Amino acid sequence: MIAVAVVDARSPGNVGTVARSMKNFGFSDLLLVDPPELDPEGEAYGFAGHAREDVLPNAREVTFDYLVENFHTVGFTAITNEDARSHVRFPFRTPAELADSLRDVEADTALVFGREDVGLTNDELARLDEVCAIPASEEYPVLNLGQAATVVLYELRELTVEQTQLPDVDRERADEDEIERLYDQWADLLDATNHPEEKRSKTMRMLRRVFGRAHLTGREAITLTGVVRRARQYAEGDADSG
Amino acid sequence: MIAVAVVDARSPGNVGTVARSMKNFGFSDLLLVDPPELDPEGEAYGFAGHAREDVLPNAREVTFDYLVENFHTVGFTAITNEDARSHVRFPFRTPAELADSLRDVEADTALVFGREDVGLTNDELARLDEVCAIPASEEYPVLNLGQAATVVLYELRELTVEQTQLPDVDRERADEDEIERLYDQWADLLDATNHPEEKRSKTMRMLRRVFGRAHLTGREAITLTGVVRRARQYAEGDADSG
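Predict the joint structure of the above. Result:
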């Protein structure tokens, strides 16, 4: 299932536009974090077209924590001038590349869009599994929230069809809790190897970014978790004996 | 030159949204047939983002005849089961197919979008050179005017924009020898942690597969290599003391 999440939207009309695009391209599960009030007589319903009948009234209000804990999360952001070599999250995939990468994957995924004016904050981006950006003009790459969601859902439309038409998936992505166990082991390993305090959160972000892009299968997540746990145990043994 | 024409739009906000998407994807020539009033203090300018500085104020008011007589005209319309039997122009092209077909075209082209509610009339469509439709859900294929223009301009961006703002991932991907050093460290770690002999090559294949999919940057490869090296050193310290 691919859900669409909108974080802290200011304008009900934009929420309605997102809902309409969802219905246009075969998506139905809308999740709202800190939404504006959606008056049935107001702009949200006015902009939603036929999505006023289902997508919009069925939208669920959730927390950002809920998204992170229950979904493979993909954030969207406009390009900044950040150097991709830095550890700051940089938009790595285009929506078209995202469609390719999600094609063989069956796990709950949330496409996360931010505020109209400032998008997702760096703190929010740091907690997501992947970051994507829409290729656009160098001169003015910042799309409106509704336009950004429309382009992304347009590019991903074949997934909503394939999901219902293709029963067999080539690989199955790990459950979110299997992935979280892997990150827990990495955190413990950094601890056991006295990884410099000030670098630890940055390194953890790097690990989340890397494994988020790799779309681990359950088997891979379990094997990796075992390898990292073993390393941590050996490292702790050393700490004990030292 | 590829111009964007909007015929008889009812809502100034939609004209502003179209202008913004034009600037996002590198288009500048906006032609308006029977436009609503575009108050500089109103929704058109409010929705236009930075396009309020150029695309929108430079828009020209023209007649439908002018479009037909001076441009290669491409109309956009939704496909609905009802419409498909009555539409006069077939076959439809998708925006992606249109991008391919326009690549070698020298003539001035106008992308023609219709009214919010009924789109272009059959009489208007009959006078245009080509008709395109955006692939969308069978259940609800009718996009909002602003969303339709956004998808089309997004698909045609390569015709106008030489450079998009996405990082050049290929250039910034880690060198192969940086990646190999990472795999060397993993192999050493498996050794240091007495990973079962018979599973070792399989585990190494899994690691190569996972990191291959993640397309590490140089910085990520170096950081990861450092983390794994440190784990191996701690593990070996244990092996020595045990």
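Residues 81-89 of chain B have pLDDT under 50 and may be disordered.
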